[in-house]
Amino acid sequence: FASLLVSLCLSLGIPARIVSGFWAGYSGNAMHVWVEMRLPDGSWISADPALENLKKEGRTKKTGYLGFVGSDRVAFSYGCDLEIKTGEGKIRIDILQNPFISGADEKKITIKHNLKTAP
After folding, report:
1. Cβ-proximal residues to 91 (8 Å cutoff; 6+ apart), any chain
2. Residue 103, in any domain of the structure
3. Burial of 34 (0-12, 13-18, 19+ CB in 10 A)
4. Low-confidence spans in the chain with pLDDT less than 50
5. SS3 category, 78
6. Among 1, 38, 36, 37, which Cα is nearest to 19's?
7. Residue 105 domain-assigned?
8. What pTM does this model have?
9. CA 32, CA 19: separation in Å to the nearest integer?
10. DSSP 96
11. Domain that holds residue 87
């Protein structure tokens, strides 16, 4: 749904991008994507074209509309086919894949979070 909406916007000359991330605080969190469209003043407005379909399928009770996607989302990336520089060159990552960390073996990577989940 998001790819189609972005494609339609771009074909009409409306700047649009896919945002990928997760719903925070829900069991079984899976990656999800939604859309942002740029307004003439340069600000971005959000929309989730898949939300009503997910609701019909009984997969969520959320509702949404143009300009509102809820504050319970964590965005990980904007756009698609992200180009990542590595020690060996560049690789392209499809946004619908899980996030990953790539680093040299001798580097220590520490990840901290303060995310409260629903009971």
Report:
1. 83, 84
2. no
3. buried
4. 97-99, 119
5. strand
6. 36
7. no
8. 0.62
9. 8
10. T
11. 2-93
